[in-house]
Design brief:
Layout lengths: L2 H5 L14 H15 L6 H8 L3 H8 L2 H26 L3 H16 L9 H4 L9 H27 L9 H21 L4 H12 L8
Helix pairs in contact: 2-3, 2-5, 5-6, 5-8, 6-9, 6-10, 8-9, 9-10
GO molecular function: DNA binding
Protein name: TetR family transcriptional regulator
Pfam family, one: TetR_C_13
Length: about 210
């Protein structure tokens, strides 16, 4: 047998190309998880909304857990990108936080998707077997809080906030307010006026500058 015959191995056939728009299917799956939560979203509901079969779901995304985590990552990336743009455009830290709360109130009550925030609500009350999913979602929430904290730290360094302001605590406070707004949005069916009133009330906790 010639050496070239030994070294030449048959090429593996590449996987069949997807017969559907993967990004569009992921977007629709995200909305299902947003509405029902991670564990309550059934495979039938997911595949029906995505317009695909279970084998296609497994081939494209792996399994339900991987699909969910990819949907959360998609949502979180878009949210963090929007947050960075919002903070970059705001002239002061106070304006940045106020715009964040107000825009969150609008987004959480937008009729184009389920009320509330996907990251704040979709993995709550999961069973012990899904604890690692909750941890992954918690990390995404922490990312938002970190962005807020870093903006507050800059405000302290610039003298916009009192030097003794605890940026971690203040960032945690506004992050908690947004999580509460998400719950309110779901409980009230998307009452925007209520959420905007909560946002305005939260801004009254903004530290006063020392004179």
């Amino acid at each position: 047998m010639k050496m070239e015959e030994v070294t030449k191995k048959p090429r593996k056939k590449s996987g069949r190309p997807l017969s559907f728009d993967r990004e569009a299917a992921l977007e629709r799956a995200m909305l299902v998880f947003w509405r029902y939560g991670y564990e309550a979203a059934s495979l039938q509901e997911l595949t029906s909304a995505m317009g695909i079969t279970p084998p296609s779901l497994y081939a494209a995304f792996g399994d339900k857990e991987k699909l969910y985590l990819e949907a959360v990552e998609r949502y979180s990336s878009q949210r963090c990108s929007t947050l960075h743009c919002l903070f970059d455009e705001a002239p002061t830290a106070r304006d940045a936080i106020e715009r964040l709360l107000q825009s969150s109130a609008v987004e959480m009550t937008c009729p184009s998707h389920p009320p509330g925030c996907l990251v704040a609500t979709s993995a709550t009350n999961c069973s012990a077997s899904a604890s690692h999913v909750q941890e992954a979602v918690s990390e995404r929430r922490d990312n938002v809080e970190t962005i807020i904290r870093e903006r507050l730290e800059k405000a302290i360094a610039d003298g916009e906030l009192p030097a003794d302001t605890n940026a971690c605590v203040l960032a945690g406070f506004y992050s908690t307010v947004m999580q509460g707004m998400s719950s309110q949005a779901r409980d009230t069916g998307g009452n925007r006026d209520r959420l905007l009133a909560i946002a305005n009330a939260a801004m009254r906790a903004w530290p006063a500058k020392n004179h």
